[in-house]
Amino acid sequence: MKKSVVIVEDDSGLKEQIIQILESAADIKCLGAFTSAEEALPQILEKKPDVVLMDIKLPGMSGIQCVAEIKKVFPTMQVIMVTVYEDSERIFRALKAGANGYLVKSSPPLQLLAAIRDVSTGGSPMSSHIASKVVRHFHVIGHSPREAENLSPRENEVLDLLSCGFIYKEIGDKLNIGTETVKTYVKHICQKMHVRSRLEAVAKHRAEY
Questions:
Q1: 43 vs 126, which has greater pLDDT?
Q2: Residue 32: which region, alpha, beta or left (left: phi > 0; alpha: psi -120 to 50)?
Q3: Most exposed: 6, 164, 195, 205, by fewest CB within 10 Å?
């Protein structure tokens, strides 16, 4: 089964590059590419792609606002921000809106394809220096008491494995539970840690230790 993807990118040259990258992969199918959130949003809600590649700065509605609108209707839809912006404010606005991954546009094609595959199976792809910014942010703001202390032993196990980079299926295999059960644990973890995505939960967890 091919992973379906929708692109939202207002730079026509970059949009065509991303389309070509997706078309080079046998297991990924591009359902459409749009230059504005207003144009993309109804199509995304209708086509229900597995993954959305979202730019942040768009004409009119921003990519972050578009993510929030998508998540209101389809909270489990996977959205990867693909942007030139690396400042902490935009990163965290995207994460709080529900983004599942965050890549810079300079990322190599293979990393983009790997991110689509990764996020589709429960991963949280993020450019390495972006991940460092996220962890540093949570170190600075601190947490008292540790929000992870509210988790059950099994939820802590799941969170530890997520932090090590394991995807849902691998976590299920290690803990002898089903993938859907892992997703339920992750949902409870996010609720208890007051975050919108597993990516933010992992970042908080890493910063606490």
A1: 43
A2: left
A3: 164
